[in-house]
Amino acid sequence: MSDWQIDTRLVADSVLLAVVDGIEVRAMASAPWPWLILVPRVSGAVELFDLTPAERAALMDLACRLGERLRHEFAANKINIAALGNVVRQLHLHVVARHEGDPGWPGPVWGRTELPLGDAERSERLRRLRAVAGD
Amino acid sequence: MSDWQIDTRLVADSVLLAVVDGIEVRAMASAPWPWLILVPRVSGAVELFDLTPAERAALMDLACRLGERLRHEFAANKINIAALGNVVRQLHLHVVARHEGDPGWPGPVWGRTELPLGDAERSERLRRLRAVAGD
To answer: pTM of whole model > 0.90?
Structure first.
């Protein structure tokens, strides 16, 4: 048993799609960019180096599998994979599909205040991200 | 033998400090944030998933070792580790030490146009980054 609990801000911002090898796969479903976040269920982890090598390899391998699927599903030009955590310290890894000319391109997505997707777009985005996260 | 060549924009922006397991450790020596970039000498690699699992593990393990040293050397509040590549596609991994209240905090460092360090500050920064990158 673990005393791990997800940060409430991650819950507010994202939708749980799957749990793979003890890692939550969550969708930032309202963002203009196709965007997953991966949250290892490891108590107290803040930095990537707080994980064991095996936990880190599992996280990065999952990020790469999902990144490759995201690129295919959304015909992305580039996948951004990042552990920042300046705002929410609980370790979480961003996997974001980028397109030339998307909002903020070629700058980073974090901290931007783009308009969120409308309800119909959000449902469609979530459907496609679920497919990416599925087996 | 490999036909790998480093992107000229990475050369222009950074200083080579060391080569570890076929990975260049370079310093963004003029940036206001303590900042390393790691460039695997792997021809054609753009995404983290273009590496073999062994190459990726070596890269992430190095990023974590250096990230932990950066945190200690600069008493950082958070380490940002990211593979973006929207501008320069050749695979490179950023390892950046962040402090609460540093330029742009808590936003990301990329794409910001902060004043570069002066000559004296740059020399001192480079000396400390060399120590972090050294054995």
So the answer is: yes
